[in-house]
Amino acid sequence: MQISHTSTCKVNENNTAERMGSGDIPVFATPAMIALMENAAMLAARNIAADGETTVGGFISATHLRPSKIGETASATATLVKAEGKKLFFEIEAKDSQGALIGKSEHVRFIVGREKFLASIQ
Which one of 2, 62, 105, 114 has the largest count of C-beta atoms within 10 Å of its C-beta? Predict the structure, then answer.
């Protein structure tokens, strides 16, 4: 069984490099693309985590390959490529609505007990 999930978002004034402070041009911000990638992996991991568990991000290495303008739709598809106990490894591709590759990443998430994790930061 392949475990994957695709998340999408519309590029708008709130997720541009100019608005997020990662650049000064009104195009899809790299931090917004990375957040979309993490969201896809987090949602894919819901199929693995047991009741009372969630996942947290531990590592991401991403490349932003091409810009996306306001009004464009971006999608990120996260695919689980390996699991080592509670450590999950994802490969993620982000594309625009024409199917052009706009970014790639490798991402690691950890399965944690939700209540225990929250208690640890109190």
Answer: 105
Q: Which two tokens stand for residue 35?
A: 């957040």
* Residues 6+ positions from 14 with CB-CB distance below 8 Å: none
* Cα–Cα distance, 13 to 32 (Å, whole number): 12
Structure tokens at 71: 């009004």
Tokens of 82: 């390996």
Q: How far apart are CA 117 and CA 113, in angstroms?
A: 6
User: Binning pLDDT at 50, 70 and 90, where does residue 88 land?
Assistant: very high
Contact 92, 23 (CB under 8 A): no
Q: What's the rounded Cα separation, in Å, for the pair 38 and 108?
A: 9
Give how far the C-alpha of residue 118 lies from the chain's centroid of Cα atoms, to the nearest Å.
Answer: 22
Max intra-chain CA distance, the chain: 45
What mean pLDDT value characterizes the chain?
Answer: 96
